[in-house]
Design goal:
Layout: H1 3-7, E1 26-30, H2 35-47, E2 52-55, H3 59-69, E3 76-82, E4 85-90, H4 92-105
Helix pairs in contact: 2-4
The structure holds glutathione.
InterPro entries: GLR_AS (IPR011767), Glutathione_S-Trfase_N (IPR004045), Thioredoxin-like_sf (IPR036249)
Organism: Oceanisphaera sediminis
Domain GST N-terminal: 28-104
Length: 107
């Protein structure tokens, strides 16, 4: 990183999650009574996205989330940029930003 980048706070930038070209490459891990999940699901509805939802009160889904993402926290968006490779995106605000970017790129 150059001094210029460092002075501009580049060390705080996170690598953006990879974009996909189809909604079947996304899955939303969530559960009922989670306000952060509801926030994401409202945006999913607003954007008209038909995203698979995985309920983490089901043991198989919880196990997949913990094994893949490393935390049990929901919501988490599972992104499959290449067959069999998964990126797990936590944080409702980051998920919403990603979904808006996805909807803009896949009109
Ligand atoms: N900052 C996170 C907060 C998410 C959060 O706190 N989710 C709760 C459920 S509402 C959770 O999964 N907590 C951890 C746990 O239950 O193990 C976000 O905005 O997504």
């Amino acid at each position: 990183m150059s001094l210029f980048d460092w002075l501009n706070g580049a060390e705080n930038e996170q690598e953006p999650a990879p974009m996909v070209d189809a909604v079947d490459k996304l899955a939303l891990y969530q559960r009922a009574w989670c306000p952060y999940c509801e926030r994401v699901k409202m945006v999913v509805g607003e954007l008209g996205l038909d995203i698979t939802e995985c309920d983490t009160t089901e043991p198989d889904h919880l196990q997949a989330l913990m094994a893949g993402g490393g935390q049990r926290m929901v919501p988490c968006l599972r992104i499959e940029p290449e067959p069999g490779r998964y990126v797990w995106l936590y944080e409702s605000a980051d998920i919403i930003a990603y979904l808006r970017r996805y909807a803009g790129a896949n009109k």
